[in-house]
Amino acid sequence: MIIFPAIDIMDRKSVRLVKGDPNQKTVYGDPLEKALAFKRAGAEYLHIVDLNAAFDSSSSINFDIIKEIKKTIDIKIQTGGGIRSLEDISYRLETLGADRVILGTIAYTSPDILRDAVKRYGERIIVGMDAKDGFLAVKGWQEITQKDILEMGIELKDIGVKTVLYTDISRDGNFKGINIQKTIELQEHCGLNIIASGGAKDIEDVNRLCDVGVYGVILGKSLYENKIDLNEAINRSKQC
Asked: Is 148 a catalytic residue?
């Protein structure tokens, strides 16, 4: 299992939001320093979200930070936030140097773009699947659709998507624990690599995901608030 330490960047600072709400923001300092600390703890991959771009797709205020992290640190990066076109995808991968990109709403509103991206970049394309009560949430979690995420997972697999980042938005940023049951259900029903996200509270979440063979897990606020020791989590993940 892969442990993905999360760095959410807003206004050039590392931050954490509660349920994606910019009004519930805690600032944790310099993103490059966080990335270096995660690398020293043994991380092999980073999960970086550009929140400014997520809220305003024209924003490029954080791009040089993402590029600098990739240039400075020998570590893989997956990044998302504000990706609205195939050109945006190419820029993140080819100019900023990201190893993978995460597509959100665009994957559902513009399936042709998703198909083109998968055809061009293959497994470097990840789709973010945000959900509440088992139904797909889009547009920055503001709209809950009637689309069952298990059905959506099958559709994504048919397009050629290999990896999905699943977030239970009701749990994100509040230490309620990963929705492990739905994570397992998605992985088994859809045959996708599932990266679990949203609400990791302690090392037991990591243990349970590891025990059932989940592909990966995002650790965010649990690291920043010292609820989970990153080195311990990474060592446990290597036993999966």
From this structure: no
Sequence-distant (≥ 6) Cβ neighbours of residue 104 within 8 angstroms: 54, 80, 81, 83, 128, 130, 138
State how many domains the chain has: 1
Length of the chain: 240
Give average pLDDT by consecutive 10-residue segment, the chain, 240 residues: 97 87 88 98 97 91 97 97 96 98 94 97 97 81 81 96 92 75 93 92 94 95 94 94
**What HEC string does 143-209 produce?**
EEEEEEHHHHHHHHHHHCCCEEEEEECCCCCCCCCCCHHHHHHHHHHHCCEEEEECCCCCHHHHHHH
Active-site annotation holds for 130:
yes
Question: Among 50, 88, 130, 172, which one carries the catalytic annotation?
Answer: 130
The CATH number of whichever domain residue 127 belongs to comes to 3.20.20.70
| Domain span including residue 35 | 2-237
Cα-based distances in Å from 12 to 55, 76, 227: 14, 20, 25
Give which of 9, 46, 45, 49 is closest to 29, Cα–Cα.
Answer: 9
pTM of the model: 0.93
